[in-house]
Amino acid sequence: MGFIEFPFIEVPKDLRKIVGEPTPGTRAYRREGTHAECGQWIEDLGLYFKGDVGISPAGVTMFVPVQRAAVHKRIKEGKLTAFFFYITHVESTFFGTKRKVKLRPYIMLSLSECKAWVAEMKRRMGYVDEPDESLMEQRKKLKPAAAADEPKTRKEAEEAAEFVSTDPKDKGTRKVRYETALNPENRQQDMFLLLTEAMAAMASGKKAEFYRKRLERGMEWDKKAKAWKWKE
Fold first, then answer.
1. What is the DSSP string of the chain?
2. Cα–Cα distance measured from residue 110 to residue 64, given in angstroms and rounded to the nearest whole number
3. Which of 56-65, 187-196, 206-215, 217-226 has the lowest mean pLDDT?
4. Spatial separation of the C-alpha atoms in residues 215 and 39, rounded to whole Å
5. Is pLDDT larger for residue 87 or for residue 22?
6. Which residue from 9, 164, 171, 166 is spatially nearest to 73, judged by alpha carbons?
7. pLDDT of res. 207
8. Which pLDDT band holds residue 58 (cuts at 50, 70, 90)?
9. What pLDDT is stored for residue 16 in this prediction?
């Protein structure tokens, strides 16, 4: 079988005013700003890539039979296009100096690249889809190929996780402090709301009205499922 080039999505230079600059040697585009700018960033990504960009690293596992650590590793190695947004604000230190505070980033990936990753696994395995085969059966057959993409050591996994949570250019500087979201539940809700706002902006007619009504009704925390859900 001849060499097959991975079908990365195209990110033209003129789009960098929206997505920021990539970390050298990777396809990890990093941007920072306010909550409002983050919402606009999500909307712009949805409009430009026509809905292809919008999946999170955790969501990748719904399409690719790997753990999240493998997604982080692939981003760090420059094998997936990833868009990062860090919400920031400025704080005063005990000594009266100013310092930038950055929340851990929102990360958006391409669905088409995730599907291409699965296709790549299948080629490595010499795997052929069976017409009546379930997704679960496919995932079992791809398990050896998926294992090859996972970090080999704990250190490798930790380095990949650090790469996707903090911007390498901030390493060693005292002018930037990273802060974990105070409430992971609220962070999850924020992501749902931001994505729905983006979908409402991109859609038209009945679909747009559907998303707008969702936003009007809002969300509620499901204690049993431990997840946010849209109010009926």
1. -------PPP--GGGHHHH-EEPTTS-EEEEEE-HHHHHHHHHHHHHHTTTSEEE-HHHHTTTSSS-HHHHHHHHHTT-S-EEEEEEEEEEE-TTS-EEEEEEPPEEEEEHHHHHHHHHHHHHHHT----TT--HHHHHHHTHHHHHHHS-SSHHHHHHHHHHHHS-GGGTT-SSEEEE--S-HHHHHHHHHHHHHHHHHHH--HHHHHHHHHHHHH-EEEETTTTEEEE--
2. 12
3. 187-196
4. 14
5. 22
6. 164
7. 82
8. confident
9. 96
pLDDT at 227: 72
CA-wise closest residue to 22 among 181, 159, 163, 116: 163
**Can you tell me the mean pLDDT for 204-220?**
79
